[in-house]
Fold each of these.
Amino acid sequence: MTRTDPTDVPRPEANLHFGVFFQGVNHWTIWSDPNSGSQIDPASYRQVAQTAERGLFDAFFLGEGLRLREVDGRIHDLDVAGRPDAITQLAALAAVTDRIGLVSTSNTTFNEPAELARRLSGLDLLSSGRAGWNVVTTDNAWTGANFRRGGYLDHADRYRRAAEFLGVARAIWDGWADDAIAASVDAPSWARPNAIGRVRERGAQFDVDLVPTLPRSAQGHPVIFQAGDSSEGRDFAARNADVIFSAHGNDFDDALAFANDLRTRLRAVGRPADDLRTRLRAVGRPADDLRILPGTEIIIGATEDEAREKARLIRFEQVTPATALNIASLLWNIDLSDRDADGPLPVEDPVIEKNSGAFGARRVADPRATVANWREQAQAHNWSLRETVIALGPQRGHVGTPAGLADKFTHFVREGAVDGFNITPYLIPDGLDDIVELLVPELQERGAYPAEYAGTTLREHLGLREPLTHRNADATRTG
Amino acid sequence: MSAGQLVLAVEIDGDGAHPAAWRHAAHAPGALLDPRRVRAVARIAENAGFGLVTLADDLVPPGGNPHISGRIGAVERAAFIAAVTSVVGIAPVVSTTYAEPFHVSSQLASIDHVSNGRGGWVVGVSAAEAAAPAWGRPLVGDAPARAREATDSARVVRDLWDSWEDDAVIRDVATSRYLDRDRLHYIDFTGQTFAVKGPAIVPRPPQGQLVVFAEHGLLPADLVDVALVGTPARTDSPRTFAEIEVALDTPAASAADRVAQLDRFTAFPARNRLRYTGSAEGFVALLTDLAGVVDGVRLHPLVLDDDLAVLSRLVLPALFRARIASRPLPGATLRDTLGLPRPDNRYATAQGNAR
């Protein structure tokens, strides 16, 4: 960094946005710590959401998994598992929070638009405009075994279905005129005549015909999140999402490259729901139409040394010997569960041909190159397999002092590499405490974090414009 | 629940049992969809001493022109209510005709978790033809087909609730295992129109099984905890509740006049329920008589804002004084309130026998 004038940055006024991701299935959540609480007790969810709200976080985020993870036909037993239905849990949190956004990850493959759109609308109304939807897709028959239609969807069609699904959902959310409900009990009817539009949508994935049952909320529609990292996923986000929950938040250059890629895609696409606005601008969506919040872990210490030592201990708690062997098994595509995690790396080459027996876990893109790199580094540092997994395995997170992290994050946001972070606490339910108590004030001192909520809705917190609706578009055309 | 006592349930959907009830509501029509209204009605019912509230639902509009056209989903309202109440049971209607049984199971198990064991399920069917194109699914057009979907769904939902044993989360630091996979079970259900593998993604509900309510005759007896009947007489289910539509005299108008006023807009349709129209004293006498016949009653107030107030001020206190009914106890689960035992886990029991 060679800049000297602190205002000589692309976005000198930009503020960070924080979300919290209460994870349900992963090895990052340390359950072995004596301070680790329940993953299902509603008190855990309430505490994390209320702590985040105290720290002026934009959003509380829940994931989804529609089948318990398996390895070689057996349920994966090393990580936290078992969680509430996201929208149900969030509707309960809506009653005990005032400002924080409530974001549900919900699947477009194993839901139908009329029902899911209505559930999200209900959450949006019960929270007075704080609902968000992280749109995810699934195509595997393994998950389909829990559902009426089984594994019906081709891999190639999953984003097509998601886009169509979102189109139907938006039509449902726009079904009611803003003044649809009678003002008085003496009116001729509960809803004004012709104020509720029928939704008829027929496409490759859907053939539905319904009368929506809910009005728009204080924020119009639920805010749309998207997390897919493939080129298809990024295009889907550029067209459809308000917020992208990326995996590019550890390294500045990587984060900036991702952000620039998204901005290029944004300029290239029109937004189907917003054809009027797009036509007016004659170009794609403006760059400030999409917020980028990478998922990250934040480990704080009073000094850099203390933070690094804390991070080292946390990594050893996260990557137990059994977890190290599981991660290595996924990479090698060999069952290594009987090896010694504190011994050397396996001598075998990774198996590429055979389908992995693992379901519900991410795969490594190029196992041969990754294993070669691991061997080289392990030899150079004299690392055991477990130490190698900790050093080179799935990486995430920022480690430092409150002041150091605040400087770093201010740099990230002012340079336009991120709009904020979706923070995954490694400890439930106390894991946000030091972030809220120590990091947030440092950021506020730098003017890089809000001093209060910008409004009452999730859309307002994120600084997003209101969705343009078919009804508004019609009014603009005729009026 | 003590022997001979009634458990009192109240349906709190919309503005009341009469289709035109919204015309006598004490709020502007749109307030129905306001979270403050949802919270207020649930708290009134809890403070009055009801054992549980139920929440009607379906995907299609509830009333249809000229009546109420909007409704927040019952599961979402139930979860919201769970967070602002402490002892009242909460039983949403969840329909089985087109919904995914796996989702239904997860949502209801989550209601039981967020309410710390106060959850119930009123098994619903979607008879309206408009439900099929709304879901985008082929019409399930006759009552036997809807009963088949309800039966298979209830079986799947119950199997999934047991698919985690109570102690499946072991947190065994020595072996790095969070779960004991031997205490998780594939349900491998195959029904007439669908199959579900399992196990659930939600741990076993605090009550083991939520309390399952169903119209008498819809489901096989082994799937029902509380049968809902229109004609008061005990059934082969562990508990039987009589369904009663109730219109009470208020300081402003007699019950009969109140019904007549609403009937001018739309006739109060006849349903398979008792209907009481009259004074609070007379209603207390009716319920006193029913206490020896059924285990509980589910009340459908004509207009919530009017009749819930009279029930709360006059009817329930009289029943409590006479020990015809009692308030749910602090910390009680809905099963406790109903005097139903916490069920053994079918899979744990099966394994135990095999060992």
Amino acid sequence: MGDLAWILISALLVNNFVLTLFLGLCPFFGVTSRVSTAVRLGLANLFVLLLTALCAWFLNRFVLGEAPYLRLIAFIVVIASLVQIVEMAIKKWSPVLFRQLGIYLPLITTNCAILGLAIFQTNRGYGFWQGMAFAVGAGLGLTLALVLMASIRERLDVADVPAVARGTGIVLIIAACLSLAFMGFAGLGSSL
Amino acid sequence: MAAAPAASLEDLTRGLWRENPVLVQMLGLCPTLAVTNSVANGIAMGVATLFVLLGSNVLVASLRTVIPKEVRITSYILIIATFVTTADFTLEALVPRIHAALGPFVALIVVNCIILGRAEAFASRVSVRRAALDAIGMGTGFTMVLLMMSGVREVLGSGTLLGMALFGGRFEPWVIMVLPPGGFLTLGIFLLLLAWRAERRQRVQEA
Amino acid sequence: MTTAHAHPSPAASAPGSGTPSWRLLTILSLSGALAGGLIVSAYRATLPPIEAHRAARVEAAIREVLKLPARWDTLYLDRGALTKRLPDGANPKAVERVFLGFDSNGNPVGAAITAGRPGFADIINLIFGLDPTSGTLLGMKVLTSKETPGLGDKIYRDSGFVRQFRGAVAPLKGVKDVSGKSQSEVAVITGATISSRTVIRIINEATARWQPLLQAYRAKATP
């Protein structure tokens, strides 16, 4: 059980997907101007991550054993299909949410965090529950990073940012500070 | 066609600076930050991405009349994934140590927004020749940024360049530069410098 | 992302001129088959050099941790015991193995064992040499590690850390300062305790697992 706890905490804090592993940067820089959008997108990503971990486990276990070289193409096709299905499901069951997420929903396909999760899960040989724990940690970690950045950016809107830094410059500097702060989690879980 | 030569040069150089995929379009950030902790890794990633971009653009442009509009994104993804898998195997066969260092980021070229972006926005609408030139321009621009980033990060963070120690034994490397915060910081400072230069040029023009 | 690429809707975009579904399906299937075929060819073409690299790496690692043995036997784990022969019908890549080294006189010098487990950042894989009779380590080499540069990566960059495994007796005990009273003490790296302790744990677990198997194999071999 400590194994699963470490996998979750590691993906959430110690080796945060965004701030340490550099996965999921497109939404991190593109979608973090408002906290409300950031939360919604983070949770949508978490949902897709869980489904991806499930499918990746299934593919690795039952389908790709004899043909490991088809792994990448299988993963990316599955992810693209998953996102399309999730998009259609949200459109049907919650048109309000669909409108709010807008263009960002199909962009989840090219979010490197999704494919990155599948690849890491495969390389580390995670079983079913480990994969799930990994997806939960990664999704929550992604949401956490998005929300942190969004809250800071909302405050930046009314702050006096130097002209040269306005836009992505200041966001990157802040990301550096956030990443540095997260390095403080380095000793966490050493007793696990 | 009198317009062709000018358009060709434009296609080639657009991606180098004016519409640089990383610094201007803000695409392909994940690999830019992740693999630039050493120059060797940066070059390998740049070359691999250029290869995939070229292959993808050429193929997409060749098949632009054949691929139905409804399934174009899926087709592009299939094409890109094939080239990336090939690049992955080739790197592992030729430079196994660098391939191990790049890790999952070679496979992640598949979701590099630059490649899908160019296929959708450009290659699917122009001739093969123009698409190829565009790919070379964008790929080279991307590699240039990787080189700049990794040059700074490796020299300051490890005290080496391409593995060769530059300073004497007394140099205490600024390790943070090869760690994640250093990646964000380096790119941020580059963007700051670019914005500063643009602002100065504008002030000179207005004066 | 500045280039927006909205997912195309399944319905036709222009009135009355949409592509029929069967055509879409055919084109997608053909593309998929073509893509698969190309990937398989690339895989076949690059397989020989990749396998050669892997074999060379393993060989070099065995030589290093067993201190230049004259030759070695590959022993496979088959139904709870070690044998020289690969079990029938088994996938060579899936069977676990260790390498038993011999010096030029044909005397066994020890076994090279590969093992790994998750460290701080990612999985740490290493190979170490073990003398099964006394439980003494002959050497240790980290094979793959993604530990933090400047901190965790000292498990292979710090030659002092690596060197202390030679001559240490399993099961190892990680300590802050070596008192010299026991051969089992190994100093952990300050600032990289998780990575260091993972290395120690990998070796202890692998030794506990393989030592009895190796001793049983030796007992069977000597009449």
Amino acid sequence: MGQAQVPWDPNRPDNPFACIDVLVSNSRQLMDQTGDLGFEFREPVQIKAMIDTGAGPVLVSKTYARHCQLFQTRSDSEIRVIGSSIKGGEHAGRISFPNTTLRPYDPIRIVSGDFLEEPHFSCLIGIDILRHWKITFDAKSKLVTIYD
Amino acid sequence: MSDLLAKETEVFQNHCKEWLRDHAGEYVTIRDEEVAGFFDSYGDAFTAGLRHFGSGRSFLIRQIWQTEPVYFVF
């Protein structure tokens, strides 16, 4: 069983989010297959992901999806937020959690959309991942503890 | 991004009602007009797509539902 602890201070108005470091990349299967053909992908960059119980999928910024050349499996997904909706892409990828013992998920559906003026995170961890975790939000200790 | 997988999306839309009878809830993998099969999970559909079509170009993976799935973010 893997574990991680991340700091979380819901009383900070500038950053009340529970965020964890993630690496989002193409799936191992794809990289192994294309590696045999001589293709190379850019190295994934470590980014902040908000643990979001209100989101369904894993969502990354379009900019990041383009940077990593994530393998696309749909281009017209509807992402609905309060009061509006946007169109996004879907990608088959891999998400891992560096510096923790949590297991990676690969392949997993990753939705890409625009993160406008959001300085604290460029990824959302939604129910597709959360349903595999036991997770505790402890506001008094200012910690989120995750077991998988 | 809008033209990518447009042909495959049209194939999906043309066959969705017919597939609903026997494959509701399953994932279908399509490239051009070719269907690689129907699968229980997104991961299985992707693995099968790579095996069937290779990795040179994107292929479409769609879940078969009566109503179009929407991703909610709150």
Amino acid sequence: MALTNETIKDRLITKFGEQLSHFEEPYGFLTFEAPKDLNLKVMQFLFDDEELRFQFLTDLTAVHYPDQRGRELAVVYHLHNLTDNIRLRFKVFTSIEKPDVYTATQLYSSANWMERETFDFFGVNFVGHPNLKRILNVDEMEYFPMRKEFPLEDQTRIDKDDAMFGRGPLPAAANRGAVETPRHAEEPLVPASGTPGGGQQKQDWKTDTTAGTDGTTADKN
Amino acid sequence: MSTEQHIKLPEGSIEKTTTTLNLGPTHPATHGVFQNILELDGERIVSAEQTVGYIHRAFEKLAERRPLYQITTLTDRLNYCSSPINNMGWHLTCEKLLGVKTPKRVDYLRVIIMELSRISDHLICNSVVGVDSGAFTGFLYVMQYRELIYEIYEEVCGSRLTTNMGRIGGFERNFTQAAWEKLDRFMAEYPAVLKEFEHLFTRNRIFMERTIGAGPISAERALNYGFTGPNLRAAGADYDVRVHTPYSSYEDFEFDIPVGKTGDCYDRFLVRNGEMWQSMRIIEQAYRKIQDMKGAEADVYHADVPEYYLPAKEDVYTKMEALIWHFKIIMGETEIPPGEVYCSVEGGNGEVGYYLISDGGRTPYRLHFRRPCFIYYQAYSELTQGAMLSDAIIVMSSLNLIAGEMDA
Amino acid sequence: MARPVRFNIHPIQADVKDNISLANMPEGFGGDGFFTTKLSDVVGLARKNSLWPMPFATSCCGIEFMATMASHYDLARFGAERLGFSPRQCDLLMVMGTIAKKMGPIVKQVYLQMAEPRWVMAVGACASSGGIFDTYSVLQGIDQVVPVDVYVPGCPPRPEAILDGFMRIQDLVGQESIRRRNGDQYKGLLQSYGIQ
């Protein structure tokens, strides 16, 4: 195997110089960071270069770091050179106020849906994407659920005892670990208008217990 | 009588020569919940537009709330046709992050389980391709033998489909005698069944006419679309994670990678069939290697890492040390090193990848699943362009699309 | 380990007395050449032994349902030989698997397309209550959109459990009064789901 992490790193540095930073090799996986307006140039170089040939996009996703001011969202690309069987990962950081990143769809057809998914989850706006709209969630959704400030659970549920799930006034439930971020003040209570369950959520649970059997045959069996 | 217009046609509908047909999300032949809106010119498909997300369950968000050992249950439900592969892939990812080295026997046991689930996955996919081309017999016939595989799972972990098998560092218990007997029986009976299954299909005129040339793709396009697994190999590129980045001691085994040429449904079918034979070969080798083990090595079923491996329940109740470790693991007192890991395994339908970012907490900071069929389903409109309507279904089933994996 | 019917290597001779399961006669009064009973019982008997299930399989439970209807477990033994894939033809909606919020309206639409009398079976934890997926995108049980008759627990339920659930549906169907669907109580139930 001719190509090594060092060769790739050297070639990248000769081409882009100081602009690429944070070269690391966690678990032998070459990782670096690029400025966000260079992401397409870096990818194009990696794709076209006769020696590097990173022509397979393994994965594309994003990570949200709410604490890093100005660089909250990281878009992570995993590329694979199938000829020499070597992988690399590079990241692009962007601020959450203006999450514009150039799309990779011209280079890799597979980036199309992966970028849509990333947009759906994190709200990264891929500039130049042919069809950037939600893919997994309902179109009416108003927020980006994978961002750290949004809760996992459906906030419209009424059949749960809040205190037992750490949302109510029970004081013991207050320290549940760092991951469970407290709910944001301006966060929407209803996840998406127009979703079922939102409008027609059953209020009266007493009458609902015999749903479907209207009480005639439920207990006979 | 004057030709007064009672029927109002929408503008341009007279000139419009194509028909729009909605397939799904509940259409019986879509094998899962995807919607395809086909634009048809007669019976020929002009364009197709796919919609997914009908069973989006927020796995990744859920994973951020769960400690590592509880995420195994989530991975089951990604590709439920081959859940053990996903379980093992997740354990391998954790072991990579934690720096756990597993003994050879554990690796081989894992290989046996993974190859069994590859067989069960391909079995469903291929027999369903048969169903969609009008041959129901094959499906009814081989489903009975999939039950044999499920019985082996049951013996190993107690569950049939969503197995939640193994632990970080190995298995929760050793293979029982009954498990080995069932494996014996499976290996004795299955080749004849597979042979007969092949006889039903491979040279069957109707089947060939239906599948040859249906939904072809070139290797170049397939790579650009991020195809992996049998679908890529059917197109002619011999990329297999088991060979390229061997995990779980796959380098100890000798097997071939079946490769197709045209990437059409027939090639995909043949590649899957070939892979089942290769899986049998691998299982046989692993079986022999395990039988040849002697001494202390012949009994281990997990790595000696008490800080990550959940102790057996009976030990927790009777032994002080096990109780302490149990408490530490459950309460999140063990050290999880911060770091970034990407680990991938060859799943039933391609490279299943796990991108795990740990910040040192007990739950992952971020976990992303590379779901192969989410990535290659986008090629569907290109695959079916210009094909007949009846091909739309068979292309879909031969791609082995699993809704749970696609929508995560 | 051994299952009574696995491989039909030594087929037993057909035995009309023991091997054919006959439905029990409903209660009634009979004599030479005539038999009288309640119409409800006869209709129930006929309905319960010829249910047409409509499989609405979305995920894991659907794979277990495949096993249930295939040769090994064979749902056809219970009179459900014909799986209808058109809701218009079916009596029993079997919802198997997670129903996301995006899918909810479709479940309801399929339910509405079915003709009365119709029954609904929620197979598996997800369809019954959302299961392990207490998340923003998953409907917490299909009983929020359609009325459910039988819930089958399990994640996924074993084929035996699905069969058991099916037999419970059969019991319900067999005992149902033919007037039930016109009653005020039933109408009220549908109304609570916004169905006219």
